[in-house]
Amino acid sequence: MIKRALLPHSLTNEVDPLCMGKAKHSELGSVIRCLVWNIWKAKQRGWLEEFSRLSRDTDLVMLQEAVSNAPSDAFFAKHDHLEWMMARSHRHPRTAIETGVKTGCIAASRSSRVYVSPHAEPIANTRKMLLQTLYPLSNGGELMVLNMHAINFVSNKKYVSHLDQLAGALDSHAGPIILAGDFNTWSLRRYGSFGEVAEGAGLLEAKMQRKRKWTHLNKHLDHVFYRGLLLRSVESLEHIKLSDHTPITATFEQENL
After folding, report:
1. What is the pTM of this model?
2. Are 145 and 60 in contact (CB under 8 A)?
3. Domains of the chain listed by start with CATH number
4. Tens digit of pLDDT for each residue in 135-148?
5. CB of 19 within 8 A of CB of 133?
């Protein structure tokens, strides 16, 4: 039996997001350049240098398995380009490094909310997070950004209960939306359940050409969905090997109100 002291310490009672950095602008411009990436807890050597390059010209960044209380904290804390909001899920018992989802934006957020999955993943007893942030748009509208790392290693019924939280967040906003992250859609049933929620909220998937990973059961786990925006481009950066997930870039354009 695994000793409880060796398992991650849950931070889900600390539901207020952690804020770091400073936004460069008061609102998002007409073109919104996005980066989505599960960074695998920043384990790989050289990750921060590559991430700094990738994020340099972006307006919106959505990370999963992001870390805090870690060596990269200084990079995020002193950032004068993006404001970072992080929903923390758990803390490593030995290193004290915290893991969760992190959203960065060139515009300061108007509000944020953290949703904690109703169920925990087995053995480690950790829960997954959905981070909702609202940002002003230059056309007078408001963009909702939903950064999600969906629960894994549970029954489809428990997976759907996490999606019910997502559906509630989607219902709370009538304007444009970007929903992205690691949705753990490693089966057709999971992907179908997720698709039903997205379709019910009027979201479209930003589909792209990409390779399948055998480690992901030859299914795609990471996705980008959107509503009320025009999709200019989306790309999976297959050449970057610094995580077990591939970063995705997407560019959107605001619609005229």
Report:
1. 0.95
2. yes
3. 4-254 (3.60.10.10)
4. 999 999 999 999 99
5. no
